[in-house]
Structure formats: structure tokens, C-alpha cells
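Exercise 7. Given the encoded structure of a 208-residue chain, write a plausible sequence.
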């Protein structure tokens, strides 16, 4: 095809489509006041320090887990020998990794959520839903705290190889749900403050 026979709109149709900034889908302006951010000092100082400490602990557990599993893989492959206690240690580390990671992700609002409706609601109505949501979460966490305490008080056994108390493994669940319950109650308080404050201040908070 010669250049003279090219349709007038061919050049515009061949241009790459504009890619929208993905942060539009990741940032929810209605929940900004509920997030805990250690870099911008957003959220209570105690929760920020605990979140940062949990993230360092997650990194340490992950490194220990990789080293432990890799050592057994190398031992089986090269020396035809493996350490029997490594698998037991890996299971315990993985349990702690899951629950501590869940608590840290909850603090930073990184759990998967369907928020298509909340994004389109005004600030006050959005925080009414957030208040109800976190009241339910706090209630469930308190139930799990009670159940976890019963498990800890009745757990007297030890692991088969390393002899680690099984209550130490269950402790990760209890610490996780206590932290999530505390953050949920703080978010309820923040949402209530936004709901009851004057309309002008709500609009100002939404603009920030």
C-alpha cells in the first residue's frame, strides 16, 4: 500500500492506547484515615511500631524458613541425608509467618476486599459501612481470643522431635487476633468521629 492510499485516520488508530494510572484502582480516598502507615506516621504510634516490628519479624521468619528447607533439600540431594527436625521447624515457622503476616497486612489495609460500592459513597456513608464492618471483625476476633485462650490453657503437649510446647505455636493465633481486634476498635472510633463531625469538616477530611 502506498502512502497516498493510507486512510486519513490510520495514524491515530495505530497509536498505543493510553494506559490509566493503576493507583486509581489501588487508592481508596474514603479509607485513608483508617490506614496505618509507618513512613508518613499515619495511625497511632503504638500500632505503627507494632506493625513495623511484625514486618521485621516476618522477614526474619522467612529467611529462617528458606534456610531450613534449603538445607534439607541440599542434604537429600548431595549427601543422601536430611535433618529430621527441619520439617517440624518449617511447619512452626510457617504458622507464625501466616498469622503475623495477616496481622501486619490488616494494619496496612492490604487484605483483599470488594470496595466498589464504598468508593462511590460519600465520606460519611462510607465510614458507616466501615464502622459496621470493623465491629463485626472485632466481635469475631474477640471470640477467637476466647477460643485461643482455652487452647493455650489446655495445651500441655510438645512437638514429637524438637520438644517445643504446642502452646507456643498457638500463641501466634492469639497475638494475631488481639492485634486485629485492637486495630478494628480504633477504626470504629475513627469512623464514628468522621460520621458525627460537621459536614464542612467531613468535606475537608475527604479533600485531604
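Solution.
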Amino acid at each position: 500500500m502506498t502512502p497516498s492510499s493510507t486512510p486519513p485516520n490510520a495514524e491515530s488508530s495505530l497509536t498505543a492506547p493510553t494506559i490509566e494510572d493503576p493507583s486509581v484502582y489501588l487508592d481508596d480516598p474514603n479509607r485513608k484515615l483508617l490506614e496505618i502507615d509507618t513512613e508518613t506516621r499515619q495511625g497511632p504510634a503504638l500500632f505503627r511500631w507494632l506493625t513495623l516490628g511484625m514486618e521485621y519479624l516476618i522477614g526474619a521468619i522467612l529467611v529462617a524458613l528458606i534456610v531450613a528447607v534449603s538445607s534439607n533439600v541440599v542434604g537429600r540431594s548431595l549427601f543422601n541425608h536430611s535433618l529430621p527436625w527441619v520439617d517440624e521447624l518449617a511447619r512452626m515457622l510457617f504458622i507464625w509467618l501466616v498469622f503475623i503476616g495477616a496481622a501486619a497486612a490488616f494494619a496496612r489495609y492490604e487484605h483483599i476486599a470488594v470496595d466498589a460500592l464504598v468508593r462511590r459513597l460519600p465520606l460519611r456513608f462510607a465510614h458507616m459501612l466501615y464502622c459496621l464492618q470493623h465491629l463485626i471483625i472485632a466481635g469475631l476476633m474477640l471470640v477467637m481470643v476466647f477460643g485461643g485462650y482455652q487452647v493455650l490453657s489446655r495445651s500441655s503437649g510438645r512437638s514429637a522431635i524438637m520438644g517445643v510446647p504446642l502452646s507456643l505455636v498457638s500463641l501466634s493465633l492469639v497475638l494475631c487476633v488481639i492485634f486485629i481486634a485492637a486495630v478494628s476498635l480504633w477504626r470504629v472510633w475513627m469512623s464514628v468521629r468522621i460520621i458525627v463531625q460537621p459536614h464542612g469538616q467531613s468535606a475537608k477530611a475527604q479533600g485531604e
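Remark. Residues 45-79 form the longest helix (35 residues). Students should compare their own answers with the one above.
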